[in-house]
């Protein structure tokens, strides 16, 4: 009887919302996020369904579980949590979509985008450390060993979109300099070459000297659509 009532409840939900509430994604995280969005989108219809006489006549509506679900759906606190969860994880969801797409090479952008995601999450909690810190800690723990390799950090350091954007980003880029130095030492084992790169060439980049100071270079690095990799033939000598 419970299974029968359960199926009837699902049928009523489909009829009330005219769609499936659960929206499957490529990953469990994507499925959970899309389902939360779907729940929020159909909030008025779902709340109306629980007050409908047809639902109240179902056996499941009279059980402890049924009453608990109804209380959750009617709770303002529950929907407030849904909205906050969507706001917190929306930027992270977009980051994962970009990384998995062919929109742009992820290596030079992923660390910068990841830092931006954390800033957006801090903004959701309005800078309240005790609220956002547990979320940031989980995200950083998952990224550890995946997005912090010397190659990732070097690509972030050498991406002018992030390096020149503002003083705060420049400071983060200085922290990524170690990754750049590790990669330089790997590809250029000769000490003379390392000195040339780490002094003269790196100084040009950091201080926007030479070609880095040209108007077209400055304008290009302000656009997230600019992809230096696709322009390599133009800059070949």
How does this structure look, described?
By secondary structure, the chain is mostly helical. The chain has a domain at 1-74. The chain is 70% helix and 0% strand. Helix 7 (110-124) runs antiparallel to helix 8 and helix 9 crosses helix 12. The N and C termini lie far apart (78 Å).
Keywords:
15 helices; disordered N terminus; elongated; 0% strand; disordered C terminus
Q: So how many helices?
A: 15
Largest β-sheet summary: none
What proportion strand? under 5%
Q: Assign an overall shape.
A: elongated
- Structural class, by secondary structure, is mainly alpha
Number of DSSP strands? 0
Q: Separation of termini?
A: 78 Å
Average pLDDT, to the nearest integer? Answer: 80
Q: What order do the SSEs take from the amino end to the carboxyl end, as H and E?
A: HHHHHHHHHHHHHHH
Q: Which regions are unreliable across 5 or more consecutive residues at pLDDT < 50?
A: 1-5, 232-237
The helix fraction, in percent, is: over 70%
Radius of gyration: 25 Å
Can you describe this structure in just a few lines?
The chain is mostly helical and 237 residues long.
Please specify the SSE layout and strand pairing.
Elements: H1 2-17, H2 28-41, H3 43-50, H4 53-56, H5 64-74, H6 76-100, H7 110-124, H8 129-143, H9 150-157, H10 160-163, H11 167-175, H12 177-187, H13 191-206, H14 215-220, H15 232-235
Helix pairs in contact: 1-3, 2-6, 6-7, 7-8, 9-12
């Amino acid at each position: 009887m419970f299974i029968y009532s359960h199926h009837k409840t699902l049928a009523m939900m489909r009829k009330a919302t005219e769609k499936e509430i659960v929206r499957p994604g490529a990953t469990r995280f994507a499925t959970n996020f899309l389902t939360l969005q779907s729940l929020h989108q159909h909030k008025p219809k779902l709340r109306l369904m629980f007050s409908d006489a047809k639902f109240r006549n179902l056996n499941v509506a009279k059980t402890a579980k049924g009453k608990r679900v109804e209380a959750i759906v009617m709770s303002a606190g529950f929907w407030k949590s849904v909205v906050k969860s969507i706001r917190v994880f929306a930027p992270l969801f977009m980051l994962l979509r970009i990384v998995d797409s062919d929109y742009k090479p992820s290596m030079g952008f992923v660390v910068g985008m990841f830092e931006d995601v954390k800033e957006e999450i801090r903004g959701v909690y309005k800078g309240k450390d005790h609220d956002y810190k547990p979320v940031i800690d989980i995200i950083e723990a998952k990224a550890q060993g995946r997005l912090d390799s010397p190659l990732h950090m070097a690509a972030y350091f050498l991406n002018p979109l992030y390096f020149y954007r503002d003083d705060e980003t420049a400071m983060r880029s200085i922290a990524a300099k170690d990754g750049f130095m590790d990669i330089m030492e790997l590809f250029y084992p000769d000490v003379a070459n390392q000195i040339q790169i780490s002094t003269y060439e790196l100084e040009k980049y950091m201080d926007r000297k030479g070609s880095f100071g040209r108007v077209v270079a400055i304008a290009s690095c302000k656009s997230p659509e600019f992809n230096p990799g696709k322009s390599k033939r133009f800059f070949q000598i």
